[in-house]
Amino acid sequence: MKITFLLLFLLCGYFSSQGQEAEGIKTNLDKNGTLTGESIIVFKDKSAAQIYNSSIDWVSYTFNNTESVIQAKIENKMIRINGISKSALGPIMGFYFDLSYKIQLDIKDGKLRFIATDLKQVAQSSPFTSTSLEIIYKKGGELKSGKKYQETKDKIDSQLTELLSSLELAVKGQTKTNNENW
Question: Model-level pTM greater than 0.85?
Fold first, then answer.
């Protein structure tokens, strides 16, 4: 009887880990007072080279100008990008703002770590005008009270989670490209 329960327990654990997907990103202030978001995705049976190549392809399909987006890369180990998501934040007094971010992808056999930093609100009418999104937090690291601060944090988390999810699908080979039906 004990062996039956043990086998059942092990099988349940195995099958639940097979469908493991990345959790959503929750941004927070780190110990240095910098707003960051991080998630680790496990890809069973994927080498670092496969994850790296799929991630490079994802950058090419996700961002308009791949060469200006990729800031650094070490083959099969790391990719660092700068990106902007259009109209991701707002409306604030009737205006929408872009979300600017830096993403670092650290890669190992079977794993990818997604780290988002340097999160900024960028004015659409003046792309050189940006505000660090750390301002939605108090000095102690607690989110400021008020509905607009929580909504802004939720929109940031949602946008980063959307990017993470699309990257995860790309590495798993579950995305469709425009080349399939021509």
Answer: no
